[in-house]
Amino acid sequence: MCGIVGAIARRNVVPILLEGLKRLEYRGYDSAGAAVLGGAADGKLQRIRSTGRVVELEKLAQAQGLNGDLGIAHTRWATHGVPSEKNAHPHVSGSVSVVHNGIIENHDAMREALRAKGYVFVSDTDTEVIAHLINSNLRDDPGSGHALFDAVRRSVAELVGAYAIAVISEADRDHLIVARHGAPLLLGLGDGENFAASDTSALIQVTQRVIYLEDGDVAELTRAAVEIVDTQGNAVERAVHVSQLSAAAVELGPYSHYMQKEIFEQPMAVANTLEMVTSAQSLAPQLFGVDAEKIFGDIDSVLILACGTSFHAGMVARYWLEGFAGIPCNVEIASEYRYRQSVPNPKALVITISQSGETADTLAALQYAKSLGHQYCLSICNVPESALVRAANLRFLTRAGPEIGVASTKAFTTQLAALALLTMVLAKMRGRLPAVRETELLKSLRHLPTALQSVLEVEPQIETWAREFVPRHHALFLGRGIHYPIAMEGALKLKEISYIHAEAYAAGELKHGPLALVDKYMPVIAIAPNDALIEKLKSNLQEVKARGGQLYVIADQDTRLTGDDVLHIIRLPDHAGLLSPILHTLPLQLLAYHVALMRGNDVDKPRNLAKSVTVE
Ligand code: G6P
């Protein structure tokens, strides 16, 4: 889950590399580095590395006057070896310099073999074996015009694990070599210059023409051309895509943080996601792919696989799919499912939910499901051309736009919008959606962006609450029914960016343990929509109140609660029946954001985390 950028041009590539790294910082931000050729008078490789953010590397680049027309750069999320200068990439062996994203699983055996050949290791990383391996293969090369390319191809054949790498050699100022297997990498095509990066946003300032590499591809970039070979060593053409990503989509604009921007973009993100539906008069399965009607007609259940926030979206969907469409649904954490012996059902629709489409556990879980005989796969994802989208036979793209804050916000609500839509389509196909109800639901989908906009107006009240949370060490989140997963998402948001320990419970579980934790220092956040379970929830709130717990309740306008019943209450200005969980998410995102901000935390880049988890 590190970020990679590479460039070969006829101009100084250092600003391109640094700008690219800044845009990739969501992938990791504990250290960074770059290596360039073509700037030093003696033709030597110039390498800089630093711990901390890319801005530290930028200072170093300025201080040293780094420049060159060929280079590679990296922003790191440590897996092997602590964040430190010596573990930061690029790693160098002889003339070879390498940046890497992923994990090399056979690094121990390879390290021993390379040590036996006399190579000395100076870092704790798995990446250093790649540098030495390429160097050793390069030394054995008799000297063709493609020595580095050939050495990389021979080397990657020996690697086990996931990788995206970019490689340059001091001995060759005219080639940049890249390779991928199980980690994302794309090429950017310029005019007399070419690039490589972990994602499109990193190259937005130089090109919109991109080629997504396939697993097993190795590519040789010169200033004039790119050549790609596949796993078998055959030259292949890969399609050139014109990225629709605009520079504005990845700029902060008037906002102070990406998380803030992304919270406030939710009405638009949901509107974009539902665009094709809201103008339609009826719901059609084809929204999920050309084969959707046939597949949806054949399934008898749903299995959802996801991680983190996307898993919470799946939990919400279970209530919708079973309660509304009448279809049995299981939801599993991808990292658990992939190692569990389960009973496959070829008639189940396997749904992967992912913002990035690159999460290693979710991808592996999907591959495992397929290996067990599952044949129907739907990917709900925010990134077109990502590995999960490509691996599925049905797909629905959430159109949230790039999500950069590590804490997921608009990806979650757009996933929920997509899952609500799926529920409605399946309900209709299973004869559980009369025409009148379909019209009503389409109306509420159309109204959803407006409803979300009005919910955002509770921000000043949430800020008042946030002040009271700042000194707290723990918090409990309660919800019942479909709002229980929303409580889980609220707790996740608070813990990941404010570092306050937060747990979510189904409110009915309170008396089976967590009530023991409740005292006057324990804030308890309850989600209290005016639904069928409200009276049950009110009993649970009384249990908290009787133990002196601090109650913070997010209710609907018409939820019957009085000031006597609770200490603090915020009422949402609008409510949307079936879509209520989507609305109730926003105040919890705002709460986490403001508490983290008031505690002085880096809201967009919380400690120890990364956005795109491409390692197991
Ligand atoms: C990381 C991110 C979370 C995200 C999870 C799953 O932990 O920090 O925000 O929910 O990965 O990612 P995905 O891209 O598969 O939704």
What's the gist of this structure?
The chain has 616 residues and is of the alpha/beta class.
Question: Number of helical segments?
Answer: 19
- What is the C-alpha radius of gyration, as a whole number of Å? 26 Å
Distance from N terminus to C terminus (CA atoms, Å) equals 10 Å
Beta strand %? 15-25%
Give a written overview of the molecule:
- The protein is of the alpha/beta class and 616 residues long.
- It has 3 domains: 3-250, Glutamine Phosphoribosylpyrophosphate, subunit 1, domain 1, CATH 3.60.20; 258-433, Glucose-6-phosphate isomerase like protein, domain 1 (Rossmann fold), CATH 3.40.50.10490; 457-598, Rossmann fold (3-Layer(aba) Sandwich), CATH 3.40.50.
- 35% of the residues lie in helices and 23% in strands.
- It has 19 helices and 25 strands.
- A hairpin with a 2-residue loop joins β7 and β8.
- The radius of gyration is 26 Å and the shape is globular.
- 56% of the residues are buried.
- The structure holds 6-O-phosphono-alpha-D-glucopyranose.
- Residues 307-310, 354-356, 359, 362, 406, 408, 609, 611, 613 line the site of 6-O-phosphono-alpha-D-glucopyranose.
- 6-O-phosphono-alpha-D-glucopyranose is lined by residues 307-310, 354-356, 359, 362, 406, 408, 609, 611, 613.
